[in-house]
Amino acid sequence: MDGFGFSEGHEMKSKTIRRWSAVHTWTSLVCTVFLLLLALTGLPLIFHHEIDHLLGNAPEVKAMPADTPHLNLQQLAEAAERHRPGEVMQYFGFEDDEPNAVLTIMAATAGTEPNSSHTFMLDARTGEALETPSANGGFMLTMLRLHVDMFAGLSGKLLLALMGVLFVVAIVSGTVLYLPFMRRLKFATVRQDKSTRLRWLDLHNLIGVVTLTWALVVGVTGVVSASADLIIAAWRNDSLSAMVAPYRDAPPLTQLAPATRLLDIAEEVAPGMQADFIAFPGTRFSSEHHYAVFMKGSTHLTSHLLTPVLIDASTLQVTAVAERPWYMDAMGMSQPLHFGDYGGMPMKILWATLDVLTIIVLGSGVYLWVVRRKAARPVLEKAESVA
Amino acid sequence: MKPRQSNFWKVFSTPIVIALFSAAGLFAALLGDGVWDSLSWLGLGIPAAVALRGLLPPCRSELARDGRQR
Prior knowledge:
Chain A is of the alpha+beta class.
């Protein structure tokens, strides 16, 4: 039972069609609930920046004369520690659209897992802390956690990655089936007057085939992002552990060298690049004995590719400028292509439109399956009663 | 073999053109701002517009054309 009812499959053998149809039906059915969750929670996430501003959750960076000098990184780290006594620095992040503030992430220990960290901004000129409530709780974070791991940590991420793979298989098999369905129909035909089922079948095919490329790209980049924990673990095993091997038996640091000059040091060895974020020693992006300054390229394309500079946290000597393995680049490029945040507001609106269209494809797919099953049952029952 | 091939192109030529526009749209904005952004809006706008057009009730001229065909 393929669930679709093909009567006309001369050119593609009907057996082949039934097989593809079974693949399409079952991969779709398994992943649909999860994909609906992802598409629905993804919708507000596309506009998280705007929603934060609207709800007053975005920090207001005070207007000051443009040439007001910035504090150095050590002064900022000390300001952060004064703001949250008893916690330690994990990350400083730098954003192009807010040059006068530094994203700051702190936690009980440097190795604390990301969901237990506290995120806020520091005014780079005064060291004043500006809270970013939506980064630490509330509606948008709930949406994000549902979207990323369904509050189930690594197993949630891997389950969603698997559902993403099924989604890709469903898209490919759906595209194969598009041919026998559309052989006698003009492109974009929507039969309005025959039956509700035919209308939605045509819409499912039409919307599915035109949103195909976008859905494939967002699906594949979503799978890559969901595997980020594994990718980072692989990077730690491959690149990082070799570079920090000489430090394996070194005693743990009790005192960090000041962070003051980290950016200058990194820029010297990575000329033409800009700092994207700094990982303090002990996080999963650094080592126990190193600061890691992640430098991004200066062109549009290379700004998504990060090169880590490892700086000894007691001598401030550069230990290594790490090579970027291909899978870290894949992870870097996946982010914009999944978030849709790289082409201004019109792109966000198109992203949301395509997301809603995907919801319609998912919903109509379930509808078509239910209707076909209902139509098939009486026939089956009749056949059984005859037998 | 021959009829199948012509069927393939008949069915897939428009979707392939739309797929190429979408791919170009997805890629363009990665390369720069300004005109690159506009290209991406065009590329992604085409699939969105075609899909939305299908969801709207058919306009009068289409009904008339369908009537003639029947």
